[in-house]
Amino acid sequence: MQKLIITGKRELKGKISISGSKNASLPILAACVFSNKAKIKNIPLVKDIFTMIELLEFIGLKIKIFKKQNSLEIINNERKINTLAPYRLVKTMRAGVLVLGSLLTKYGKAKVSLPGGCAIGTRPVDLHLFALKKLGAKIKIKNGYIIAEAKKGLKGAVIKFPSISVGATENAILAAFNAKGKTIIKNCAVEPEIKELIIFLKKLGANITLSGRTITIIENLQKVSEINHDIMFDRIEAGTYIIASALIGKKVLIDKINPKILKKELEILKKVGVKIKKNRSSLLILENKKFKKINIVTKPYPGFPTDLQAQLMVLLTQADGVSKIKEEIFENRFMHVPELKRMGAKIKIKNKTAYIEGPTNLTGAEVMATDLRASVSLVLAGLVAENRTLINRIYHLDRGYEALENKLNACNVKIKRI
Ligand code: EPZ
Question: Does the pLDDT value for residue 385 go beyond 90?
Answer without folding.
Answer: yes
